[in-house]
Specification:
Length: about 350
């Protein structure tokens, strides 16, 4: 059996081995998916109604957790990240204001609609084709409730494909993407897995969901990564030339002529001195202030974002990387909300 198969749907295999009728399995899976989407739908609806009653918000960042780790090529710890990030956001060691002065305790700035129940869905034997659709539908449910905009907590980087696809489909056209990462994640199908966290941006570009893709912080890239970048017209900014590119990257203007800007932050874009709690440690990365300067100075309408690849199982005892991921979420919240 392949690596993907060994990681996969043990419960479904057991049922098939027991000669359980396929239509019975299918109906059961459908009920679980419907229940999962109903929970997200009702939470989103409630938050939207409350915000509209409060008034005064044109855009509100809405946390949506996607605790998925099985598409990682190395460690699956990012599946445990969403609750750790939430805990760090509200940690009493710091206040609830962003650097630009927005108050996170104001529900018009930040709200939370919970998690997509990824493991519960997979436990019912649902494959990745359907799981990616559930993630995308959950994102669309958030976007249907004005003024909510999705700020997604991963999870490994495979989640960016269904999220970006959903954002693009819901808005009716492509977006510009700012992608901060040590890796380009643009393999055609890493280890034979089209949904690998190392292949998410290949799926995004193939689908036409992005007009421009800017990849910043790259320092681990193969010949395939460069070839795929050229194939899709990706603007790849490697760390070896960051000092030369800094001024450009700290003065980006994106989203004009498309449906807005999507920001995807892989925590390993940071040098491991700042964020050791990641699966793929790559020295020579961005400083935290480098990332914040890029985000603060970006001009464009940020319609959605994600923070991915924080691995709590590799974090320091005091949760340093959790606090870093939380700070990224806080500053992205400030960028989205208005």
């Amino acid at each position: 059996m392949s690596v993907i198969g060994r990681r996969g749907l043990h419960y479904l295999h057991t049922l098939k081995a027991s000669n359980v009728p396929a239509d019975l399995i299918q109906k059961g899976q459908d009920r679980v998916i419907d229940a999962s989407l109903t929970l997200i739908r009702e939470r989103v609806k409630l938050k939207g109604e409350l915000l509209r009653a409060l008034g005064g918000a044109k855009a509100t960042a809405s946390l949506l957790g996607v605790p998925l780790g099985h598409n990682s090529s190395f460690l699956q710890g990012p599946a445990f990240a969403p609750p750790r990030i939430r805990e760090a956001i509200w940690c009493g060691s710091t206040n609830s204001a962003t650097e630009e002065g927005k108050e996170l305790k104001d529900p018009r700035v930040l709200t939370d609609v919970g998690d997509v129940p990824v493991q519960e869905i997979r436990d019912c034997g649902v494959d990745d084709d359907r799981l990616m659709n559930v993630i995308g539908e959950s994102v669309k449910l958030v976007m249907e409730e004005d003024p909510l905009r999705p700020l997604v907590l991963g999870g490994d980087h495979s989640i960016s494909f269904p999220v970006v696809r959903a954002v693009s489909e819901k808005l009716g056209g492509p977006v510009d993407i700012l992608h901060l990462d040590a890796h380009p994640d643009i393999y055609h199908a890493f280890e034979g897995n089209i949904y690998s966290h190392a292949s998410s941006f290949a799926r995004i570009m193939e689908g036409g969901y992005a007009r421009r893709l800017l990849q910043v912080g790259i320092r681990s890239i193969t010949s395939e990564g460069r070839e795929q970048g050229k194939r899709f017209g990706v603007e790849q900014y490697e760390m070896r030339t960051f000092s030369r590119d800094r001024h450009l990257l700290e003065n980006l203007k994106l989203g004009e002529g498309v449906k807005g800007v999507y920001i995807s932050v892989d925590v390993d874009c940071l040098d491991p001195a700042f964020a050791p709690g990641v699966s793929h440690i790559e020295p020579g990365g961005l400083s935290f202030r480098d990332v914040i300067n890029i985000l603060h100075n970006l001009q464009g309408d940020v319609v959605a974002a994600d923070v991915v690849e924080f691995n709590p199982q590799r974090d320091t005892v005091d949760g340093m990387t959790a606090m870093v991921a939380a700070k990224l979420v806080r500053e992205l919240t400030a960028k989205i909300s208005r």
